[in-house]
Amino acid sequence: MTIYAQAQPAPAIRKRKFPMIRTVLALFAFAVVLCGFIVFDPMSKIGQTDTATAPEVASALPEVTRAQTDIGSLQDAVALAGADAPASSAAQIAAATTLGGDAGQRILAASGGVQTRTGPTVLTDDSSISETTAAVLAGLGLNTGATAPTDDSLMTQTAGVLAGIRGVTGAPQTAAAPQSALQTLVIEALREGQSDSYIDEIVNAAATEGRLSVPEILVTSDGRVDTHVLLASIVSQAQIANGGAAPVVPEVPTGGSDGVEVRVVQRATETQQYTFYTVNAGDSLGSIAVKFYGSVEHYQTIFEANRSILSSPDLIRSGQRLVIPKLDA
Amino acid sequence: MQRILAGLLLILSSAVSAQDVRITPNMAAATYTINGETFTISREQDQDSLLTGEFARTSRACPPFCVHPMSVAPGVETVAELEVINFLTGQVAAGRGLLIDSRVPEWFAKGAIPGAVNVPFSTLDEGNPYRIEILKALGARDTASGLDFSDVFTLMLYCNGPWCDQSPRAIHSLLDAGYPAERIKYYRGGMQDWLMLGLTVTNPGGG
Description:
The complex is a heterodimer.
Chain A: H1 2-6, H2 21-39, H3 53-60, H4 66-82, H5 89-97, H6 101-110, E1 124-125, H7 129-139, H8 154-169, H9 181-191, H10 196-208, E2 214-215, H11 227-241, E3 260-266, E4 271-278, H12 285-293, H13 299-305, E5 321-324
Parallel strand pairs in A: 1-2
Antiparallel strand pairs in A: 3-4, 4-5
Chain B: H1 2-13, E1 30-34, E2 37-41, E3 77-79, H2 81-92, E4 97-101, H3 105-110, E5 117-118, H4 131-137, E6 141-143, E7 146-148, E8 154-158, H5 166-177, E9 184-187, H6 190-196
Parallel strand pairs in B: 3-9, 4-5, 4-8, 8-9
Antiparallel strand pairs in B: 1-2, 6-7
């Protein structure tokens, strides 16, 4: 069409009231097509999801409905827009296509998305937060007694043996169980009465330099160490050790503004309620467990329910949409 | 001699409490203090008392519950109940010895010899990366040429009895780590013989 418009007027046409009409019409049509391309950009920018991609995603993931995908993609887009520039093309693909949280993460995972984390990489170990908590408390001279970690690991047993031997020999208990670098750092800081933010700073500095490793569930979606959860766990364990009440399951607001979403699914015989949570920047699996269950100890419940998108408890990312199962009463 | 007489007088005078079931003719009970906590060992006075529960069983499967020889390893002395009591009132009370229960914590919690320390056999195994901390707590010292065991506690180990392999395993682990054999003793009778004689256990009725 444009070629025709740019060609010289055909000689067969003679009398014309508006001699430029064809050129004007052609230019107008060109402008319309151009606008069409801008509005319905097939190379895809944010905003295209609703018309084309979402239904495909919904059919590929039977548990994700159209409406949920929209919410997920919106939050995904917001989270990505708020984050630093994506570190790899895989992240850019995820950002550009604005798929739902789940699908976007699947693309990330499929394309080697492990390296796409924008924050510093934190070393993790297989210690549990309860072990860490008990060790820190023991280091501070507080015996958690019956509420000591339930993990039947050799480290826990050894700590119990050492406490027993020292209880009989009268040796000082302060040189408690073998401590990890994280425990030593936190114990020292707490002894000095340092603030939470100071502890957060030194732990993250040490983690960035690779000087310590942390339990997996303390790694946040932006690759930092969630010292808030660790400190909260220490405080609550100390309270329990001193005869305080165990933490109760909190009432979680379900307004949807902070990523919490409750959906009721009706089947032929029963009505089931599902809670979803979209990971925000700075969340760790531990903090999410505290948010919904009041205790980090239940992180495993969340992890098991989301095995399909979480390969490891330390690999959560902003925008991931996690199922939060109900705890067995 | 004077002490014994005084002790006898004391026992007789303190309400000739008619202990018909004594540990020995000269000893109705043994009292000792470990790190500020006082324990007393005596025997069950009900002469109709019988073993019940786990320790009334005669025929556990072997393996793993096999009959163990009297001697666990060269140089490791095997002892019986009176030596256990003397060890508690002597070396343990003086801070030179430790009576060690080699069983898992659940069994220890159900009932143990008063004053014993629970050191599960698995924590003394080579596979425990933190074992060195336990050895140090037992008195071993770090030196350039390895651990120095010259100043360690004398240990007496027991578990569930002649059919239990946990204290023998713990003893072999200790020997492999370099613990001197003359500082290890083995109470082969364990909880089985201890309970069969009606001797005092912690947490009575719990097992």
